[in-house]
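Hi P.,

Sorry for the delay on this. The queue was packed all week, but I finally got your sequence through. Input first:
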Amino acid sequence: CIFTNNRARSAGAVHIRSAVVTFQSCVFRNNLAESHGGAGLETGDSLVKFINCVFEDNIANAEDSTNGKGGAYLGWESGYFYRCIFKRNTAFNGGALCLEEKSIIANCLFENNFANSKGGAIYASSPFSTYYEGWVGTHRIDHCTFINNQAPEGPVIYLSGEMRLQNDLMPNAGDEPIKAVAREVSGWGLIPSSLNISGVLYDDPHFADPVHGDYRLMPDSPAIDANGLDTGAPELYSPDLGGTARPIGANWDLGAYEYDPQADSDGDGLINDDEWNTHHTHPYKADTDGDYVS
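Then the structure:
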């Protein structure tokens, strides 16, 4: 399905309530909400999954923290995003996503999203239970690539709650790409956020062609086989954003794309490792004239 050029006070494209819904291979483009959720809004007793979906140029137009939430907004229940692309979405908080309670985001690309205040790519919060004496919702962000997302606070992620980040790429994201803040809980005072980070690379990952939006890994990328941790539940992370089974090699690669040395990515008859190591050509750009020079 394609949801485009829709307008609403809240939930520009889709409003879901008390339902279990899966969106697969859908496009949400150029939708606008006067309040929150440019692409969609989820509230109440719901479970929503997005698989192989694209969110582009959606806007949550309100200019305040209560209403201006997320190019896509999922409130107070569970949301899952697998192999999705988020580009040029805008909101007051959470340019691409505003998430409340719990979520899993895996093998996704976030590029050029913008928040006027907090969380250029993602604004995430979790409920705190005084009964359980802790956070009761966890956000997991694994094997994602973040490119040029912007916000005054937390240009990549702004967190008030609990989150685990693993095997992600955040190159050139500034001095404080992730901002985790404490929350005032009545009778408990300030409760610090719980942020668990492992295998996140902030340096240049050596992308194939970042100028033209190709964020696959070059053979010399420091992100290849960079994670030796138990990722758990491999069905959540394979295939990658481009459809390649992962992991390949000794360990998992970081980011949304897995490098395959035996693939012929440019279709010129040479596998990627031969192009790079033997012919010294670009594995993603076809050698059209046969002279082994890309």
